[in-house]
# Entry
Amino acid sequence: MNRLDGKTCLITGGARGQGAAEARLFASEGAKVWICDLLDAEGEAVAAELDCQYRRLDVCDEAGWQMLIEEIISLENGIDVLINNAGIFRANRLLTTTMDEFNLVMDINCNGVFLGMRTVAAPMIESGGGSIVNISSIAGLRAAVGAFSYGASKWAVRGMTKTAAVELARKGVRVNSIHPGLIETPMAHELGPNIDKMTSRVPLGRIAQADEVAQLALFLASDESAYSTGCEFVVDGGITAL
# Structure
């Protein structure tokens, strides 16, 4: 259908998992796809598969963000979509979370999203608008027992999304968040044996595939969602309905 025909899309954490699934789907829908990550071999493999661009980016690096966006604009004459997908998971309760661990998770999951939004906002405004999609989690909608720092970071993403959406709405830039539940990605398997127990509690009775998140990201990246901003979109098999 070419739902993203002519749009330039940047996906962070695009080397594997949800990011790679989004890159594949976006490319199939006509987008000019750029992916970035720190996993160079996997990122370059995805880029070769899709004939798209891969760049190494630490999402916590302010200067790195600026250089990447400047390059994209110089080659593509603008940027239309940013998918803030990069993130890490750490399992620890409040009383056992160290300051170093908390700062690491917040730096990547929260500061990385902030820097991405701030860097793309001005060029999107200048070109007439755009769509920013921040990947949060159901941990940003409810208590994240056993993953204190992760939950804190994902609530922060949810809050930043709403504020940015209101600030940028009259300038033509939409900002929404996606809140996945259990998704079949390498990050999910960091839960270890708990993943089977958690899956059994999902009303739909299964773990989701990464492409099911990508389909939602596609809707938000496309003009089909032109009247949606500042919203939480949940893809969790019904777990937050309990």
Summary: The mean pLDDT is 96. The longest strand covers residues 173-180. The first helix runs from residue 17 to 28. The chain has one domain: 8-241.
